[in-house]
Amino acid sequence: MLGFIIRILEEKGFEPYLASYMPFGIYPKLSVPFFALPLGRRPGIKQYLYADKWQATGIGAWFPELEFTHYQPTHHWRDLMERFRYHVLVSGNCLGAWPFVKTGRPFLAWVATSWHEDRKDRIRTFPWHRKLLDTQINSRFLCRQERAILRSGSILALSHYTRRSLEAIAGPGCVADVMPMPVDLDKFKPDSQQVVARRIGFTGRFDDPRKNIGLLLEAVALLRNRRPQVSVDLIGSHPSYELLERIRTLNIESMINIPGPMQQDDLALSLKSMDLFVIPSHQEGLCISGLEALASGCPVISTRCGGPEEFICENHNGLLIDSNPKALAAAITRIIDDPSLRKKMAQGARSSMENNYAYSTQREIFWKAFCLTFPGAVQ
Fold first, then answer.
1. What band does 360 get if pLDDT is binned at 50, 70 and 90?
2. What pTM value is reported for the model?
């Protein structure tokens, strides 16, 4: 999402400068937790090059244990905002726009999901004391922040599902428009000669509970004896010990390949080889990886988890299923055992992307919102 916004801003001659809260877990020296107060520390900043190209600043916070403090407009935020005329947020949820709201600045935000849906699965993994802190303090403040942000700026939602979620929080009309993530149709494109029969793809963060990778592994275990030729490429990151142990426990090591993190060009080549692609998630604001798979001519099987329900047309470019291993295993079997159905879905997959997710279409949506938010900014 960020790369897309940077690209279209640069096309119009803007020079994007990036800023964000630098999480305590990544760079603890920038923030001041409760235990550091006696040390006299103050929040700091770190300047760096994002992707070795764009100027960026990471900003620390007071009391990072309290999530609602992450974007409080400290003097670092205020000094940085004073240097720029236009302010755009690109994020999973809208909380990063809090400094704009508190300082009365117009802003345009492109949001993938609501705050609650962005983190509800992660909360289940918190220790008891953090769950208590989250329930009694964090949640109350974060809900108010989110509602205030949605009612203050110009909001673009990543999907119609996201729009409904946000408007349920802040009221009808808080979202200006829906702007799905466009797909690079020149990079992600089909090649029937590269398809490997019965190869299944998954792309996502292995440690994100929302991705629900366990559902896919359990479905593959059900197929182990009936369809032993099935193979699965898990693409996204390096596997944790827990993931490898689960694969071993299910006795499916021979069916799983984990190639490690991939750049976009390598991912495009990999998706061309997939017989089908699976989204086993609990919740998705849209699921960009599913769009890239469809653009590559790869049918997609997804749980009914939000965003994918907008771009998967049953029996045209994929299948929607209930979130249980038997349903997923049955859907996989249906496609890999029927070459004519797979061919039909592959054709539908590509055409659905060409008709609805082209770069030019989403660029027009963005510039319309940008000009309405910042009159006179673009000639």
1. confident
2. 0.82
